[in-house]
Amino acid sequence: MTKHLLLSGAFGLGLMASALPAAAQSCEIPVGSVLSITGSMAAIGKAIGDAGQLAVDQFNEAGGVAGCNVKYILRDDQGSPNVGVDAAKTLVEIEKAPVILGAIQSGVTMPILTSVSVPGKVVQISCCSSAPTFTQLARDGGTGGYWFRTLPTDRPQGVVMANIAKTKGYKKIAVIHVNSDYGVSLARSFKAAFEKVGGTVSSVTPYNQEQASYRAEVNAAMQGDPDSLFLIAFPADGATALREWISFGGSQNLLLSNSLRADEFVKSVGAQYLTKAEGIDNAQTEGPSVDAFNKAWAAKFGSAPNGPGLHTMYDAAAVALLAMEKAGKPDGTAIRDNIRAITTGDGEVIFPGPDGFKKAKELIKAGKPIRYEGATGPISFDQFGDVTGPYLIWGVGNDGKLTVVDKWDKTRVADAIAEIDK
Amino acid sequence: MLQALADGILTGSIIALGAIGLTLTMGILRFANFAHAELITWGAYMALGALAITGTFAGPTPPFSFGLPLVFATLIAVVLTAALALLIDHLVFRPLRSHTSHMTVVFASFGVSLLVRMVILLIFGGSAAYYSNELQIAIRVMPGLRVMPDHVFTLGLTLAIVVALHLFLQKTRLGLSMRALAENPDLVRINGIDTRVVVRWTWVIGAALAAVSGVLYGLTVQLRPEIGFQLLLPLFAAAILGGVGNVFGAVIGGLIVGLAESLSVLFVPAGYKMAVPFFILLAVLYVRPNGIFGALRGGAK
């Protein structure tokens, strides 16, 4: 069934592609996309593919890119690295695509990046892969700058928390974190950032989930008399560990991770012990550029764009195409060098949609700067190709209710990261 | 170091209480009862339920975080847990014990344990609960050692129960019959002792200890429907380490497991602490296949 749909979809795509050139330019620029249309991520892959298609259609409506029509070629990776690499190879070597969008899973994205995109000098933008290994690879120079992603990693969280710890005057902080990919990488990025702003991390203690008691871990974390604690945990285990920490006379200067923002956690620990605590969480992106995408999506598909990866995939495609327009040619290296030019600076703001892209084309033609604000709001890639998201800082009121203490928009987060990277 | 020692002894004493009940039933009833861990959860939650009634009469008694209400609630929990144990024995284990092989009873105990856990989940819900929402702040006894009054109480109670149980097994007629049943069931029957009564009392004592252990656990950590399941492996490790059927062995086994977990954190990353007691278990069983205090044949000592 799925296969059948896929075939007919591909057929329809081919028809569209062959019908369009007659209406506009005679040349075609391929934009490749590798996503999981089948396999374990199939449930979300189809809609993510549609989000990329929407951006491409809007560009063609606005008159194409670099004087040509854009041809969106979507390939299925079936959730498997081998299939994904094969698909990407075909896109780059046979279709001559200068850009690959995808993949969804980090395990598929990584081999495509290292064995296809970087050697082929092709820009790769992922909507959905959040593994910290990409940042590390970029730091080691393994991506050649061809790697970007529109989904925030957990590194900004670590940086923001380090800033809060510094503002609060904490000098020596203990970290207790859940022993998972998420916990390990957040603890690591926090430690690096906090040491960069002049603080000391007295200990980093991992804990395994679902254990009877965390007294031993709490004890280990207390070594070296820390003046505060950063707890990266999930609500139930986090409550156990934190109660034991407070019982043992641990400091009530607490920093809490995003996963602890739950009423259950506050109730279990006791609100009276959390009055000095501050936590972080992802904030909902808002603004006219986000609305523009939401409206366009609803108009085309008749439903609200609720689902992972839709906003980020749209922006991945839009950023690639705008950079290509700015570069003036479908060349991977030229696109790479122009991506930051169209997302930062004081240029005129461009919103998603055919009208926005038309305006962008005119401004670029006139040699004027533009700044794209997309479906995920303002986008600014750091030197490793990562973006930041907006965050909110939460606290606990005397009545035990969760409150919002502060908000960090993307610019403030980006500034803090730039400060750390200096 | 001192603190880790104190924690180890505390965790160990709670495990020990549960392990005594387990080792008694294993030694006398001659099968590994996986549902025993669920009796601990049941006891803890029954006390929570009873506390809703008894808690209205009086507040906590300093320096402890609890007062007489919890003591009464624990007594009620002991009765209810013993009732559950007897009910399980009557409905599941007794019919199976006489007819089928050993393994059937063991697997039946698995099923029973799941059933009990789900019933608790159904009644009380899955989120963590506490006997008191007040947190007790530890008292600094000396540099590097903080102790909570509740912990001292737990330790003292464990000690008292172990001594009482020892006297019971050594001096009373019932205690002697229990040990005899463990040693040689046929001989006991020949001597005209009603084994059904002895079995019943074994369940009652095992369940009562489980309930107390559950309450102490809930008091010092928290209440969750999975606490019994999480304690299952440490309990078995302690019981086997000390030698099946041996009360003092179970206490020493519990302390070894507790201490190994808490001291190991000083030397290996905390993520691996669960494995340490089992390394010790392996090593001990290699040298003494029947456990530290285990005799060559089964029996309650």
UniProtKB/TrEMBL annotation, chain A:
Residues 1-24 form the signal peptide. Keywords: Amino-acid transport, Signal, Transport. Pfam families: Peripla_BP_6. GO terms for biological process: amino acid transport. Residues 28-357 form the Leucine-binding protein domain. The keyword Signal applies. SUPFAM superfamilies: Periplasmic binding protein-like I. InterPro entries: BCAA_transport (IPR051010), Leu-bd (IPR028081), Peripla_BP_I (IPR028082). The keyword Transport applies. Belongs to the leucine-binding protein family. This is Branched-chain amino acid transport system substrate-binding protein. It comes from Xaviernesmea oryzae.
UniProtKB/TrEMBL annotation, chain B:
Its main location: membrane. The chain crosses the membrane at residues 12-32, 39-58, 70-93, 105-131, 151-169, 197-219, 231-259, 266-287. Belongs to the binding-protein-dependent transport system permease family. LivHM subfamily. The keyword Cell inner membrane applies. The keyword ATP-binding does not apply. This is Branched-chain amino acid transport system permease protein. Keywords: Amino-acid transport, Cell inner membrane, Cell membrane, Membrane, Transmembrane, Transmembrane helix, Transport. GO terms for biological process: D-alanine transmembrane transport; L-alanine transport; L-isoleucine import across plasma membrane.
